[in-house]
Design brief:
Chain lengths: ~375, ~375
């Protein structure tokens, strides 16, 4: 709405070319500036603290500046064009990232799973056949099943049990905080904690808690994580249960609060025992929550990696799919097996993807 | 009214059962915490639970045998004969006390009597050792002194902060922009794009790792902070977008209409209206993402590799587990350092943390 003397048609034309130029400049400026900062920060050897502060400022400010500067350009477009382009400015960066880091890689990994170790020759389904014949890979598959069967089940059952107990106890908040605490720490730290519990040293004095308990009751100390294959896996699974139960408990606990009190009271009036009430009223009432917690925990358990890596490094037949993936990829440099293992994990979560999409449609958002 | 006594009794049972479970849950962490303050020499000689009062053989005095005592022959201590093996594992003396070698080479025997005791030897040396990487000495059970170097964890701590803060803020900013567009702007492909986000929620990271690493190597992003930020941002985006969408789409429509009437642009509405309104949600998902990044091991392991200047805490500790598997005084201290931040977040912001957990917990 300037008071220039140019005719509207001329103005739009100059504006269009100016806008096009500005758009290109803004893009180039962002790429150039961030590229320069990146190279500068990577190659400089300044004080680590200053380096850290600069890196954080750049990382956070840089992203905001990209949105701000590009939006500034888009705001100069005509109304119609702005309405057309602005949504893509908002979702664009998210989609570029998702495309680059998840979507396209998935397709590339799928393609690589049909190639040989060096990604050179097409081998068809040979890698998939190997997974079901190679002893190491078979062990990994079997162990993943163990993890899901024991780890996921125990986390869910214990989580539900503790949620119900906490609901009726006199120290609900404290109990929930204690059970929930391991959720906050890393698997690496948890690995150190439990490695120390399972620690075995030759001789009389056992400083590992488990062996101390065993010897106190007159038993023989054991190297728990390396003996009695495949049951040593259970000792690793305990760690997952210790960490995941809190998650299940918190969500179950929230769901339990939604069970109407008068329904429970009525059942008690009719003389139903607590067990009957639990299985006939509470469980059906929170069944959707149980289902979603179960899928979440199973997905999480399928990808278990850190615990095994820290505790045994996959030795003593404790290998799982994710650790075997890492080993095939980084140590044996077998990209074919590596990709195939990743795709096996993907296939395992496809039912969950379908479930999530169904849930979304049911909620009516899309 | 007659049911009352039964209910109270069942409540007591519930309390006891729950207390036992809580105790079991707490013991591992307590053990780590106590051990991290115990001197290196004691940690391998006695369990951490001995810091609590317990019954044990306590050394009362020392007997020094002649220097030329032949260890292959029966050894006379206080008038009774013992073999070397007996003295090694502790031999019962006639008066009920126990003889055991204190220092076999120096031929000294310690005389122990049963009594209540607690090990209250605590030190902060372990923490100094892992944080600064200074030299420290261990006196072994046979009397020899070893010098070992600690690990410089302070740099790793700083790196973890440098990785975690942008790797939390960047994806959440990007996700909130996208969530706003999905919720309130109409554009072609909107539905398809959102379905893709939902599908990517549970896709395992492993599926993406090899191709992304290839790109990183080509672009020189491997082992840089930017590379790790981008990786975490990409892997955290689906959940963050879904989480923010479910909040932003619930906001009342009038809010936007009146803002549009006033001539506000989408960008202004977003920065002035949506961001401030969404602060509680942003806090929840930020805590979730922050802890995820802070605790992550796999992504750093793959994308940082062996760049010592960029390595994060989890990698350093995993390294220590591999190379110093029996140095529990260092491992426990290091593990506790890595837990400091999550525990602070956990105790300080528990409300938001739990809300984030309830909102969306499926993560790929």
């Amino acid at each position: 709405m300037t008071t220039s003397t140019a005719t509207p048609a001329e103005k739009t034309k100059t504006n269009t070319s100016l806008n096009a130029l500005l758009s290109i400049l803004a893009l180039a400026f962002n790429i150039g500036l961030n590229g320069l900062i990146f190279v500068f920060l990577r190659d400089s050897d300044m004080n680590p603290v200053i380096h850290a502060i600069l890196a954080i400022l750049w990382g956070v400010g840089g992203v905001y500046f990209i949105y701000w500067s590009l939006n500034w350009v888009v705001e100069r477009y005509s109304d119609a064009w702005r309405r057309r382009i602005q949504p893509y400015l908002f979702v664009g960066p998210a989609f570029l990232l998702l495309g680059w880091l998840l979507l396209i890689p998935t397709v590339r990994t799928l393609y690589m799973s049909f190639l040989d170790a060096g990604s050179e020759k097409f081998v068809g389904f040979a890698n998939y056949a190997a997974i079901f014949t190679n002893r190491l890979l078979l062990t990994a598959l079997r162990n993943n099943l163990l993890w899901v069967a024991f780890g996921a089940t125990a986390s869910i059952v214990l989580g539900l049990l503790i949620a119900v107990l906490a609901d009726r106890s006199s120290f609900e908040r404290l109990a929930k905080a204690i059970i929930f605490l391991p959720m906050a720490i890393s698997f690496v730290a948890a690995g150190v904690i439990w490695k120390f519990i399972y620690y075995y040293q030759p001789g009389d004095e056992q400083v590992g808690l488990l062996n101390a308990i065993v010897t106190a009751f007159g038993g023989e100390p054991q190297a728990w994580t390396s003996m009695m294959q495949p049951w040593n896996n259970l000792f690793l699974i305990v760690i997952l249960v210790w960490m995941q139960t809190g998650f299940a408990m918190v969500i179950f606990s929230a769901a339990l609060k939604g069970v109407p009190e008068d329904m429970l009271e009525a059942a008690r009036m009719d003389g139903a025992g607590e067990f009957r009430i639990f299985f006939k009223i509470i469980v059906p009432f929170i069944s959707t929550t149980i289902l979603s917690v179960t899928t979440t925990i199973i997905v999480f358990t399928l990808k278990i990696f850190d615990v095994v890596m820290i505790m045994t490094g996959g030795q003593y037949d404790t290998e799982v799919v994710a650790t075997q993936f890492y080993r095939q990829f980084f140590m044996y440099r077998n990209f074919g097996y590596g990709s195939t293992l990743a795709i096996v994990l993907l296939i395992a979560v496809i039912p969950v993807i379908v479930f999530n999409l169904r849930q979304m449609r049911k909620q009516g958002g899309f | 009214m007659r049911r009352r006594p039964r209910r109270t009794r069942s409540k007591t049972t519930v309390n006891i059962v729950l207390a036992v479970i809580c105790l079991i849950w707490l013991i591992p962490t307590v053990g780590l915490f106590i051990s991290s303050f115990r001197p290196a020499t004691e940690i391998l000689k006695s369990g951490w639970w001995t810091v609590f009062p317990h019954k044990e053989n306590v050394a009362t005095h020392t007997i020094t045998l002649p220097k030329d005592t032949d260890l292959r022959q029966p050894i006379e201590v206080d008038g009774t004969m013992y073999t070397d093996d007996q003295l090694r594992s502790g031999a019962k003396a006639p008066d009920g006390s126990v003889f055991v070698w204190e220092n076999r080479r120096a031929r000294t025997i310690s005389v122990q009597q049963s009594g209540w005791t607690m090990n209250t030897n605590f030190t902060t040396e372990n923490y100094e050792g892992v944080l600064t990487g200074k030299q420290y000495q261990i006196t072994d059970t046979d009397g020899s002194v070893k010098t070992k170097k600690g690990n410089g964890l302070s740099r790793a701590f700083l790196n973890t902060v440098t990785v975690s803060i942008p790797a939390t803020i960047i994806p959440i900013l990007i996700a909130t922009f996208a969530a706003y567009a999905f919720a309130w702007l109409r554009f072609p492909l909107r539905k398809t794009m959102f379905v893709i986000v939902i599908m990517l929620l549970v896709v395992p990271l492993q599926v993406a790792m090899i191709p992304v690493l290839k790109d990183y190597t080509a672009l020189g992003l491997n082992g840089t902070f930017l590379g790790v930020w981008i990786a975490h941002a990409g892997f955290g985006l689906p959940l963050a977008t879904y989480f923010m969408y479910s909040y932003i789409s619930q906001l009342p429509k009038d809010l936007f209409e009146s803002a549009f009437m006033d001539g506000a642009s989408n960008f202004t509405i977003f920065t002035r209206l949506i961001l401030p309104l969404a602060v509680p949600s942003i806090a929840s998902i930020s805590i979730f993402q922050f802890l995820w990044v802070w605790n992550d091991y796999l992504v750093s392991l793959v994308f940082i590799g062996n760049q010592p200047n960029v390595q994060v805490l989890s990698m350093k500790i995993a390294d220590m587990v591999g190379t110093r598997g029996n140095d529990w005084h260092l491992l426990t201290a290091a593990a506790f350092i890595s837990m400091l931040m999550p525990l602070a977040v956990f105790f300080g912001l528990q409300k938001y943390f739990v809300r984030g957990l309830l909102g969306g917990s499926v993560k790929g």
